[in-house]
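Chain A, query sequence.
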Amino acid sequence: MAPISRRDFVKGALAAPIALSPLSSAARSQSRTVTEFDIVVAGAGHNSLAATAYLVTAGYKCLVLEGRPMIGGGTLTTSLTLAGFQEDVCSSVHGAIQNNPMLRDHEIDLRPYGLEYIVPDPVFHMPFPDGSSITLWHDEQRTAAEFAKYSKKDATTYLRLLKEAEPLGRVFGQVSFNPPGFAKPMMDLLGELPHGGVWQRRMAQSAWENIRDSYEDEHVRAFIMAVAFTRLISPTMQMGGGAAYGVYGEQRHGRPAPKGGSGKLAQALAQYVEDRGGVILTNKGVEKLIIENGRCAGVECSDGSSYRARKAVLSSMHVKDMIHMAPADLWGDDFIQGVNMWQAEASSVFMSHYALTEPPRFPLAGGATITPVESLILTSADRMIKMMGNFAVGEPELEDPAMATSCMTIVDPTRAPAGLHTLYLLSYAPFNLKQGPEHWDKIKEEAADRYLAQLRRFAPNLTDDKILARFCETPLDIWRRDPVFWHGSIHGGLMAPSQSGAMRPVPGWADYKMPIPGLYQTGATTHPGGSVSAAPGRNAVMVMFKDFGTSIPEVLSKRTK
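Chain A, predicted structure.
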């Protein structure tokens, strides 16, 4: 089959109403008369909005252009199933951003804009075919007791590794919230820890090797692997060993979610930007970079409008699209070849949204039930390894699929009409099928039914009469909806050694500067990658401020209270 391009498949936006946070009247009035700004930002995902928040704090006149009819990118909440139901289109959990100085230290103070986080307990629940289960609670002893049902040794190991892994948060924070080269490499930082050599080896191994060597019981192994795979890192990938220790971060910090939906973060950032004179325009897809004297001087949009940038253009567009927006000789052969080699995640996702009359209820031993916000389904660790092998050759898993569910209305009833619930069913699936990615259009409804059947196997209360509506997206639909999710990549692209750190997005260009002077890059295709961390946004600003002769601390010290 010939290589496919996004334009072959883009057929429009979501087939459901989208709610957009309205722009201020001042911003709309300004946008009609001003076409030149200090900085033009292409894309209104949370990373580019976070970057813009720092830039307007520094006093720069900024314009944000979003090609879709709504802001937020992966942090978007809207009505997908029925009126009155608010569903997270992509991300739901905002764990990584909690350690970002932007939010943690209120460098960008979003408190006046109503951003509030809920941290559900339990964190995860995972049922097994034999009728048993494991539940991750905020109380670490209670979690260890869940493991002890299967292996007292594994319970002891869990508590030991939980303590040993505590310094990892500081290490990952230093690496994530700094551009490559601004902080020591992760392996050097790990070497400074107690038992540093052990941690270096653990990170260099695969997640599966770490899980297999630490735990003996198959239930425990499957649970740790299911939590690890929420990062969409293949369990057998070398240098992916850190995923095996993600469960300890979930144990310590839980899974924070914005009250009202993931989109509350984007809305808060947008309001912060507008309150400081920034302009945000939607339905403004960037099609071309304006180049003058070898420098990026602005952008042209699909509707024929153009906007000039006196200082810089900041892009959060996918690099696969961006390289077609300027002449090839300006990028250079190595950069173009690096982008052409870019790979999507080892697994994409199939998203199913449900409007329900009641939440999923999972039976427990003894006749009780549990209604967790988030649940995981993976019948065995072996199943995951085999599934990833099948994905590599284009075979979806419909017989015994692995998945994650989220029913946020259990703790946040604002997301649905009184007494009703939303359900977000995320099933792991390949983008490229043997028959081609367009084959998803033919098997979409069958796949959705099979995924629902797997959930019903463990939550039998979800009978047809409990389901009011369903809205589904295949990996192909996800790309059609938003070009930033290239090949259904919800985390920007494969987080392998070949696409991480100084290799992301392209070796030699990991400092958020692109080969064309005046053009900077942020978003999930840059370090440290996907998830809701706002790290790419803040890191890009660190580089921009350095080039502009200032810094985040200096800008914050001068801001008006």
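The two ends are 59 Å apart (CA to CA). Residues 34-116+260-343+493-558 form a domain with the FAD/NAD(P)-binding domain fold (CATH 3.50.50.60).
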